[in-house]
Amino acid sequence: MKAKLSFIVVMLIFGSIGLFVKNINLSSSEIALFRGAVGSLFLIGASFLVKQRFSLKTTKKNLVLLLLSGAALGFNWIFLFESYRYTTIANATLSYYFAPIFVMILAPFLLKEKWTWMKGLSIPIAFLGLLLVVNPGGEMAIGTYNHPVGIMYGLLAAALYTSVILMNKFIQNLSDFETTIMQLLTASIVLFPYVLSTQNLNYAGLGIKSLSLLLVVGIIHTGVAYLLYFSVLKKLKGQTIAVLSYIDPISAVIMAAIILNESMGFVQIVGGVLILGSTFISEMNWKLSRKA
Hints:
The chain is an all-alpha fold. The protein is 77% helix and 1% strand.
C-alpha cells in the first residue's frame, strides 16, 4: 500500500509540472537546461545516500546510446514546454501521451514485438481521438493560444520521448536509476551550447517567483519524483504501474481546469478519452499476452 501511495504521489507531481512551467519567465530551452542540471545534481547527491554505485566500464559501453537518448530527452522537454505555451495543459498533455502509440507502431520493426489485433485497433482509435482534440469545431487560434501549433509541439515531444524509450531498450547492464542520471547529465551538457547560442543568458532580472518555480521543477518534479519513482518501481506489479500511470495525464487536466480555469469542450473530452483509452487497452492487452 505504501508503494502504491508513493507512486500516486509521483504521478501527481508529474501531472502538475505544466502549472509551474507556464509561470516561469524563461524560454523553454532554458527551463529544460536548468531542469536537467538541477535534477541530475540532486540525484547524484541522493545516489550516495541510497548507496547506488556506478560502473564506469558499463557506462562507457553504453556511451553512444546514453548521449543520444540524453540529447533526445533534453529536446523532448523543450518541445513539451513550448506546447504548454501555445495550447492548454490538457491539449499538451494529451498530445504528449501519444508516445505509447508511437512506441507501439515502431516496436514490431525495431524490437521485433508482434502486433495483436487489439494493438492494431488501438492505433486508429488514438488518431481519431487526436483529430477530435486538435480541431473541436474548427477553432484554430483563440486568444493567446494557437492550439494546432501547441499540439504539434506536444507530438514532437512525444516522438522524442519515444526515441528515448526505444533506445533505453538497448542499454545494457545499467540500472534505471543510473541510466536516468546519465541521461539528465547528458541533456544538460547538450543543451548548454544550444542555449548559449540561442538565448541571451542574463538572469539579473529573473524574479523570485520564477527562480522558486524553477527550483521546484528541478528538485521536486525531477530529482525527488525520479528518486521516489525508482524506489517503488520494483515493489509494484507491471499492470499496477500501467493503471496508476494514468493519474499523470488525468490529474494534469483536472488541475489545469481547477487552478487555471482551462476548459475542454465535449468533443475534446471524447478525444482525450479515446487517446488515453487506446493506450490503456494496448497496455492491458500486452500484459495479458505476456502471461498467455
